């Protein structure tokens, strides 16, 4: 394609320079610092028991939170797109709240709610569940953080879903549940997985909303980003960079996976048309 | 096209028969109830709790927070950081969106992924990267110190960390919008002899202004509310390097809950305003696109929602 409009060298040049300055050079500095030290020392940092426990917590709870968000995000997207009920527009507008609300605010507010003397914490306490200062609290914060990703990736796909396919299924004798499980759900699956992957990726790196509700107990409720902060506070720059690089590599892997899912999703939608 | 009714022949009853592509009322209302319950528990209640906690001890104490010098300083510093970050990221956001949505070039998808990257990097790592670049331990550290330049544990570092975290917001709001709108009008202007800047200011900017406004507002909300990245580079120097979210953390850890939630209510109002403006803009954009105003005839570019 010929470039007809003006501004190609200027805008691309500025974009690349700014991107290098703000994103690529800082990432390179991190990798340089992490890999610059003694190799075996780095390895022992990123595989130490305390760090390994934090990976288990961060990845395990993020996975559970994104599964919960997958289920409730699907239900929410479905009702928001297909049904009309009082408060629909209000909910539609507030779905993005976790994007817009600062994480520290979400953190203290969820802690106040779910603490034993909070509105919801008191209710849970009656059935013997403590929801803060343990992995459940981390899960609550991560469900909050990841919720919009699933809803917002599913909504456009649900809107675009051709009604004819569902009608065809019905004329062929499928009941509503069969139509959903055999026709609608397979069409939604790529977008659902994309949304859950994005929620997962966001959850793994989340910091502000968790540190208040988790209690930060070593080996129990310490998330990986918190360990980076505590290394920094001890002026252990190599250790902090090593843990940071490990997390960054995980983020790259998750991002690549979500790109592949999106390509699959586009291909599926394209094929069904 | 009207969907065909596939239910049994109508029996004498008051309600219209169920269509084959609809769920029964029981299923429908169960799903709506689940949505409402989940929404109430995870989104509405946390928001309500912020204001309830802020006003728990009355108006007087609430207002007292905004007379405390440390809190006032935090608000001023947050505003300063946002005032630097938002214009810079707006300009570069528009530049990136122009390059990506107007031209095809090799590596374009990679560029889009890289622009998105800061959203997926943990904010703590964002802060860490700048500490490693400009901190006392870094190769640049001694040079910066000998020239009396303080970046880490000072405002410039906080600006850099915030720039990184809010880097993608304007660009990723604009890219789908500009791709959906297409370039027909810009090309028409070009054939009529318009120059580059004229095309941008007279054609493109009016077309994208609502999307741009949302990008700017979102960028502003995130710049004022960023916690993790700023926390790492700030050094928590009280009355010097505390932004609003960092001040909230300090007050909270000192059990000054009312004051912490009072500051939090300020940021919550900002978030609510951001979302309110977003829904107004969304409705406007949907109407514009539906009316065909600025809509490209190329079906490949209908990617507004993806």
Care to describe what's here?
The complex is a heterodimer of chains A (273) and B (306). Chain A is an all-alpha fold and 273 residues long. Chain A has one domain (38-272): MetI-like fold, CATH 1.10.3720.10. Helix content of chain A is 81%, strand content 0%. Chain A has 13 helices and no strands. Chain A has helices at 8-36, 39-46, 49-82, 88-94, 97-100, 103-114, 119-126, 135-160, 163-171, 176-205, 208-214, 224-233, 237-272. Chain A is globular and about 70 Å long. The model of chain A has no long low-confidence stretch (mean pLDDT 89). Chain B has 306 residues and is mostly helical. Chain B has a single domain, classed as Orthogonal Bundle (MetI-like fold), CATH 1.10.3720. Helix content of chain B is 70%, strand content 0%. Chain B has helices at residues 25-54, 58-65, 69-102, 108-116, 123-134, 141-146, 155-165, 167-181, 184-191, 196-225, 228-234, 244-253, 257-290. In chain B, α3 (69-102) crosses α12. Chain B is globular and about 55 Å long. The two termini of chain B are 26 Å apart. Classes of the chains: A mainly alpha (273), B mainly alpha (306). Chains A and B meet through α1, α3, α4, α5 and α6 of A and α1, α3, α4, α5 and α9 of B.
Key phrases:
heterodimer, A: 273 residues, mainly alpha, MetI-like fold, 13 helices, globular, B: 306 residues, 0% strand, disordered C terminus
Write a brief structural summary.
The complex is a heterodimer of chains A (273) and B (306). Chain A has a single domain, classed as MetI-like fold (Orthogonal Bundle).
Topology:
The complex is a heterodimer of chains A (273) and B (306).
Chain A: H1 8-36, H2 39-46, H3 49-82, H4 88-94, H5 97-100, H6 103-114, H7 119-126, H8 135-160, H9 163-171, H10 176-205, H11 208-214, H12 224-233, H13 237-272
Helix pairs in contact in A: 1-13, 2-13, 3-8, 3-10, 6-8, 6-11, 8-10, 8-11, 9-10, 10-13, 12-13
Chain B: H1 25-54, H2 58-65, H3 69-102, H4 108-116, H5 123-134, H6 141-146, H7 155-165, H8 167-181, H9 184-191, H10 196-225, H11 228-234, H12 244-253, H13 257-290
